[in-house]
Design goal:
It is found in: Cell membrane. The protein is mostly helical. The protein contains 20 helices and no strands.
């Protein structure tokens, strides 16, 4: 058994070296690491990719379609100006001393359907513009907004990480969605607006100068013009629709009503693929009509969304392939057995494994995918609620201490004009606080519902 654990450690170490040192794309690193792990575990070299390709196929079929639909919804909201409308409306209602809370709320709402990178691109120019107009330190607004985006990225489907973990652990998506939103709210409050008050004292820098702010103002304007934008309620309805459909299906399922004709229909429309498909069609019709897009324009925008998700989809698929290699070789069972013998709480174990991989690779997605594959054998005897909490614990671990091997670290540093040290005191600390607070709240919920 020790040889299988060594094979797993060497395989993960190879992935870490390829990503962090060689700077190889995570897709290729996961692919090569998976083959190396299989060979080290005793799989014949000519079959080293067999489990990997099986895992890639199952991951794309189970998660890839959802990621693609989420990408379409996100770009439609962005290009129609719907995301800007949500942010502008919330900010217009907030007094100056509540702007940090308003930015956290804006990011929380916008972050539900948008990938983290897209949300950052949308919100940071707005953060810089508002900080300059309000004459406030950029950290006072930026940290709450980034906390909202990052928490959604870690805890709430249809973001790739939670979707992959749900698929790997066979957790209930609707239940995970509901618990994820429940846990994300206090986590964002503690790690965002409240923690930002301390960070402002440590890093009281103002927004970059007039030239950068002018550029940011231009970037923050909607792409379709003010007259073609959807209303606030219309934009929010696109975000809320899949959430309501999936939560309704979960309620019907838990209430034991899914055998009735109405119950079957609700469960069907609340299935993730159906819910996101319905929302995608709804968003296409609503936002295209409000923006006045012709059919060719709409098709062009939808097509452009696939380019933005291609890299994410490949990484997620390769992570699924690596997970399947761990499962088929028996490595996952051995590691899970070792954790069980150590009497470690499965939730803490999932968080810890994700933390270690996150620190080594700098990728939240790689951390979530790999950790869920390693921890999967521990999930066999867990209740549905505990399975969902395990997904969320892994998600919390996946965002621990973003540092120099994470692209997000440099993105925030450059946008906010901070030094490396200042970025550690703000962005890195916020990510760590999110991770630890998320774990603590997950454990508390676990005790309550046990």
């Amino acid at each position: 058994m020790s040889s299988l654990i060594i094979a797993a450690l060497l395989g993960i170490a190879l992935i870490v070296i390829l990503i962090a040192v060689v700077k190889l794309h995570p897709f290729l690193a996961l692919m090569l690491g998976s083959a190396a792990t299989a060979i080290l575990a005793g799989v014949p070299y000519d079959k080293s990719f067999a489990s990997f390709t099986t895992g890639v196929g199952s991951t794309v079929s189970g998660v890839g379609l959802l990621i693609a639909l989420g990408g379409i919804i996100g770009i439609l909201l962005t290009r129609s100006g719907g995301a800007d409308v949500i942010v502008d409306t919330i900010l217009a209602k907030a007094p100056k001393n509540k702007l940090g809370w308003a930015m956290a709320l804006s990011a929380f709402i916008v972050g539900i359907p948008l990938f983290f990178e897209v949300g950052v691109v949308i919100l940071i120019p707005i953060i810089l513009l508002v900080a300059r107009r309000a004459k406030m330190p950029v950290v006072a607004l930026g940290i709450p907004a980034l906390a909202g985006l990052s928490a959604l990225h870690a805890f709430v489907p249809p973001h790739p990480g939670p979707l992959v973990a749900i698929d790997a652990l066979h957790a209930h998506l609707g239940m995970t969605l509901g618990l994820g939103l429940l846990i994300a709210v206090p986590t964002v409050i503690l790690s965002g607006p409240l923690l930002a008050r301390l960070m402002v004292r440590w890093v009281p820098i103002m927004a970059p100068g007039a030239e950068t702010s002018a550029q940011s103002e231009g970037e923050g304007e909607g792409n379709s013009g003010q007259s073609g934008r959807p209303s606030f309620l219309e934009a929010v309805s696109v975000i809320i629709l899949p959430v309501l459909l999936m939560l309704a299906a979960s309620v019907v399922d838990l209430a034991g009503l899914k055998a009735s004709p109405a119950g079957r229909a609700i469960v069907w429309v609340g299935t993730p693929l159906e819910a996101l498909t319905i929302t995608t069609v709804y968003a296409m019709v609503l936002l295209a009509f409000r923006a006045g897009w012709a059919r060719e324009k709409l098709n062009s925008i939808v097509g452009s969304s696939f380019a933005s998700i291609a890299g994410i989809l490949l990484i997620v698929a390769a992570g699924g392939g690596f997970k399947q290699t761990l499962v088929d070789s028996g490595i996952g069972e051995v590691i899970a057995h070792s954790i069980t013998e150590a009497n470690m709480n499965p939730l803490f174990a999932g968080w810890l494994v994700a933390v270690l991989i996150r620190l080594a690779t700098g990728s939240a997605t790689v951390a979530t995918v790999t950790a869920s594959g390693i921890i999967a054998p521990l999930a066999v005897n867990l209740s549905p609620v505990q399975l969902s909490l395990l997904v969320l614990a892994i998600g919390a671990g996946s965002i621990f201490l973003s540092h120099v091997n994470d692209a997000g670290f440099w993105l925030v540093k450059e946008y906010f004009g901070m030094t490396v040290g200042q970025t550690f005191k703000t962005w890195s600390l916020m990510e760590t606080a999110l991770s630890v607070c998320g774990l603590v709240i997950v454990l508390l919920v676990s005790v309550v519902v046990h």
